[in-house]
Every structure is written in C-alpha cells, then in structure tokens.
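Folding Task

Wanted — backbone structure
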Amino acid sequence: MAQIPHPHSGKKLSESGIGRELLQGKWYAWAFWGIVATFYLYEFFIRVTPSVILPELTKDFDVTPGSTATAMSTYLWVYAPMQLAVGVLLDRWGSKYVVSTAAMLCAVGCILFSMADELFMAGFGRGFIGFGSAFAFVGAIYVATVWFPPNRLGLIAGITLSVGMIGEIIGQYPVSVLTTDYGWQKVVFWSGIIGAFLGLCMLILIPRRPSWFENRFSHDDERRIGVLHSLFILLKNPQIWIIGLISAVLYLPMSVIAALWGTSYLEETMNIDTDQSTAIITMLAVGWLFGCPIFGRLSDSFENRRLPILIGCIGGTLTLGLFLLAPQLSFTTMLILVLVMGLCTSTQSITFAIVIEVSPRQLAATAVSTCNFITMMLAGLLQVAIGWILDWRMNLGHGLAPAPARATVHGNSNHVVAQNAYEGATSGDFIYALAVIPLLFAVTIVLSFFLKETRGRNICELSLDP
C-alpha cells in the first residue's frame, strides 16, 4: 500500500490547481459538499414534479393513469441501472466533471419534457433526467468521503437526504401554484435552465481530488479492480442485498407515494383538492428533513446502526397501515400521521453509511451506488405496478377502460385537474393498489435482524482478488 501524507498534516501536496493544499475536515469541505448537495436538491425537485402534474399529463396526452405512470417511471428505469456505473465512474474519475455533466443532462431532459406533445417524448425526456439524476446523491456522498473524516459519514448522509427533502417540498405545493399560474410546460422548461446553471457552477467550484486521496491505494489496486470485478465483489456479499432491500422499502414512501401516487390517492379517497393533498405529502419530506440528520447523528454518536433501522421499519409498517385508512381520517390527523411516517422512514439515510462500512474502502462510491440501484429498481417496479393494478381494478369493477381525462376545477382552487383520469376508481381500488407497500415494510422488520452491526467502522473482510 502506498504511503501517503495525512490529510491534516499541512504538508504541501503535489496535485496542481485549486486542490493543491486543501485538507480534509476544513470549512471548505462544507462548500464542496454543499454545491453537490444542491444538485441533489434540484434532482429531487424534478423527480417529484410529476406527482403534482400527473392529472394534467393524463389530460393533455389523453391516456390512462397506468400509461402516464409507465412514461414517468422511465426516469427510474434509467436511473436505477445507471447506479451500477455511477459509483465506478466516481471512484475512477472523481466528482468535478462527472456531476457537472450530469446536471447538464438533467437540464436537457427537462427541456425535452417541456416540449413534448405526446407521451412517448415526455417519457424520453424523463429518461434523460433519470440519467443525469443518477449522479446526484452518490456524488454528494462521494464528495463527503473525500473531504470529511469517516466518523461524520452517518451525519453527512443524513444531512444530504435532508437537503433532498427541501427539493421534495419545493416540488409539491409551490409547483402546484406555479402550474396553476403558468402551466406545467413552463415550470418544467425553467427547471431545465436552472439545471444548466447549476452544472456550470459545479464545474467552476468543485476542485480536483487532492493527492492524499488519490494515493490512499496503490496503482496496482486501481488497475486490477475493473468495473465488473467491482460489482462482483459487492453483489456476492449477502449484506449488500439485505441493506439494499431495506433501503429500497424504507424509501418507498418517497419514491412511490411522494414522487407519483400520493396526491392523487389523497384527492380521490379524502375528497380534498390538490393544495390540501400536496400539503399532506409535503409533511413526509418535513419528517425526512429533520429525521435524517437526527438519526444520522444519533447513529454516529451511539455507534449503533441496526437499532434505528429496526425502529424505522416498525414505524413505517404501522404508519403506512394507517395511511391506507385515509377515508376515515381527518385532514389534521393525516398531516400528523404523514409527518411521523417521514420521521420513521428517514432512518433510510443510515443504510448508506452501513453499506460503505461493509464494503472495501476502495469501492465506497460503488457500494453506495449499488445500494441505490436496488432502491430505485424496486421503486420503478412499484410505480408501474400500482398504476396498472389501479387500471385493472377500475376495469374489473366497470367492465371498460378508464374514461379519458377531462379537465375540471376544484371549488376552492384555480388548479385544473383531470378528474376523469380516475373516474370510477373507488377508495378500495387505491387501497388495494397501495397495500403492497406496508406488506413489504413488514418483511424488512425480519430482514433487520440479519444486518451486521458495524459500530460506525469498516468491518469488511472481503478480498479484492478475483
């Protein structure tokens, strides 16, 4: 193993440019991480926007909810497999050029989406967004592994997800208001312009990797760990699969309910308008906003990863079960319930610290991206499955296809929605379609007992040899 200078030693480093004498754990670590975390905020904003404009899309493209969900889930079908490459690219090339290019791709996708006049083109644009977005979260975590000491990893992962929740909050009610005033096309188009500006900022501000980070491992290690070999090393570890599945299920409230089906479910089952439904869904993000850094900090301080994960799985099971009782719950009760759901499921942030701690240090970014791959694959499957289950239930109950959407206006809102996109869908149809989520949460309770406790330290004993 190559000898390297300690990152806090103050010795002059050989890397030229802005990163020449930068050290780990200094104030500028927050700046470098912060700009990439802002990209994650932006990525989350454009990820969840379809949950608010879903009725308008169904109306404008004259399709069924299931077809719209399939097109919008293109984001996840591109995002998920890209995770297998994202970590390797970051481990090999660093974050500077990788994440700035990714933001530009998000911008291109938003502009294509805004110009779409048919569902296929909208799905194509969402695919571009998914491609670029795949680098946001892993990129922020990767920057944290470079510029922060290991004992802050749980906290930084939690704060990163909290920053993403701000994007989710902005992507709910504010998008609803902007869509009412300007139309979804303009909202999505200007989202693309913001993405291009953000990409330029990252290109200018993020430094190259410092030499003390480059020299942690020998060049022999670097040469022999190829892309497929890296993935093989990780995927043959049962802990990666357990962590990935738990992460995926804990994330379902965000990836399926908040990102696509939540507002429509609440509007149809509680007979409320879009402003009220987005307010409820926003509480999920508020729970994550506070829960992620709190649980991350507690997990680091008490050197315990498994207990908060178990608490999150149990809490998620209970709150999601109650969430499906929406027709019987008041607006205020639902606000509180979804807030608690967000707090419980925010323990998902800890899974990214665990997956690094059970993986070879050389493969930190690849480990995070592999976990994210499993997380998003399940999200993509359920986004589509719930849409088609809903279509099937509607057909089963009425013997015909769902009626084409037609615009209507809520009595206390100027927000135009395609009410007939779900005409004939009962509360029971929605509950039936969403019931798989709390069932999966119950499975994670069992899986939690098979997690290895890392105590906040790397416990990997896997060999890098083929």
User: Anything to note?
Assistant: The mean pLDDT is 80. Residues 27-448 form a domain with the Growth Hormone; Chain: A; fold (CATH 1.20.1250.20). The first strand starts at residue 407 and ends at 409. DSSP finds 21 helices and two strands in the chain.
